[in-house]
Amino acid sequence: MNTTEQYKQNKHPLDVIDDVYDYADEELSFEEIEERAGGGEWERLKWAGMYAQKQEGYFMIRTKVPGGKLTPEQAEVIGEVTEDYAVAPEEYGGEEQNELWGDAYLDITTRQDIQKHWIRVEDVPEMWERYDEVGLTTVQGCGDSARNVLGCPAAGLDDHECFNAQPVIDAVSDYFTNNREYANLPRKFKITITGCAHDCAQSQINDVGLVPAKKEIDGEHLYGFHARVGGGLSDGPRMSSELDAFIRPEDAVEFCRAVAQTFKELGDRNNRGVCRMRYLVEQMGPEKFEEAVRDRCTIDLPTGGENLTVGYQGDHVGVHEQKQDGLNYVGFNVIAGRMGGDEFAAAARAAKKYGTEDASVRLATDQNFLITHIPDENVDDLLAEPFAQEYSPDPGPFSRGAVGCTGNEFCNYAIIETKKRTKRWARELDERIDVPDDIEAIRMHMSGCSASCAQPQIADIGFRGETVKLDDENSTNAEGDNIVEGMDFGLGGSLGADNEFLDWVENAVPAHAVIPALEQLFEAYSEGRDDGEKFYEWTRRVDNERLRQIMQGADAPVARGVAHGD
Predict the structure, then answer these.
(1) Please, which residues have CB within 8 angstroms of residue 154's CB and are 6 or more apart in sequence?
(2) In 3-state terms, what secondary structure has residue 422?
(3) Model confidence at 493: pLDDT above 80
(4) Mean per-residue pLDDT for 357-385?
(5) What is the rounded CA–CA span in Å between residue 238 and residue 15?
(6) What is the DSSP letter of 303?
(7) Burial of 431: CB neighbours in 10 Å, binned 0-12, 13-18, 19+
(8) Is the pTM here over 0.85, yes or no?
(9) Average pLDDT over the chain, rounded to an integer
């Protein structure tokens, strides 16, 4: 077993939740926590939804939101807790800690979670108490267990869904949360469930993806799910494989349990680099993996029926009519997912003020959020709210498609800064580049390292952080240092019927050369695209060498750096 597995054997990771109360009561420092519980405690704390920040003494804490669905009361508590506890100390800048957001901000993630920074251990029990009152939890927000269960953020609202899968999402999430039997898997276990024909819950890049299907059984036409397994990004990305099985909604919990059992028994617990379930599916093959799941399932699974997925959307920005007459949902654009706790609380209060009693706040997989059940006559008033000016439902195409990971501001693994850069670049690109009128969004995803938290492989334009060494003559650093932040530059990713991971077209591009390179690419795209051709389709049609030549036509050192250390 690897070291992490040994930590989990020494103490069940869910036991760390009781430890947090003790650490908080005694106000222990990081050094005192490690002295008491050993180095493995940092790994086990992930089961409480807590990551040790690179700034010692502070945590990032992750709140799970199954299917992204929040009541206005829950969303308001999240915003208020952020204001009260996600506060940077003066030694790290206090209210001026971040020039774009100050402090007391939250991040909406690509897995429909909420993350907060600058959390002290002594504040966690009170935070949990306030969460308990409205039915929220951070338990298993991280760690080697079932993570937050994804779903369509417009579940129950859109005409293009086959059925509302939110009750199934809730049932599967409830089953795995605090379940000691399945809280120690070989690696993180990511599930997505949707009844939406547009697969905005991203089944193709999850360990388990349940997507809508129908089948005739005993003369009755039934709706249910088909299952996709073994998808994922990071190193060794893999699109999921479809199993030949039809899963009734009432059998979804048992099916997911059987997959988890298979992973638990057969997954690799030695090499941490290949512990993800996608490696197991690849090693066994989808057919053998399906056999193993059926062997462990307590119900009979019929063979597959008719697949009802027609494509991939993944974007709910804008004002949209609901299938309920006279009601609308509004998708607000949050560049890189970051916004103030006070702003999120204001959005929650607006949902209560302008929505019906069924109003909700929904988190989307593109780091944006929705407010639902707004009567026609209230839409304009909602859009006039102050928060709606900053997080416009009518953004430019680069802002609309921008996704950014945590970056080196807080993450120990990230090489470059991402959040501020993503927001600044998106807005600058919207000003500098004329995108064809029929293109609503350009998906630009920035990850600070190779871990793919921002999902760069499925974007039109993907970035992966590097430090780049330039020749002295090309250095722009005021101190004359020729080591600068940069990134690998990828083009052409997408999900859906034409799903494909992007190609890393150029490596070690200095950050200051990226926007000039994009200007060259979009000029060539606008001139050379076929009618209706999307940007990722054009980049696939054009040879990579030609794409490199276009980028290198910029007045910037696009190809004159190497990854530092190479």
Answers:
(1) 161, 196, 200, 316, 320, 329, 362, 370, 372
(2) helix
(3) yes
(4) 98
(5) 33
(6) P
(7) exposed
(8) yes
(9) 96
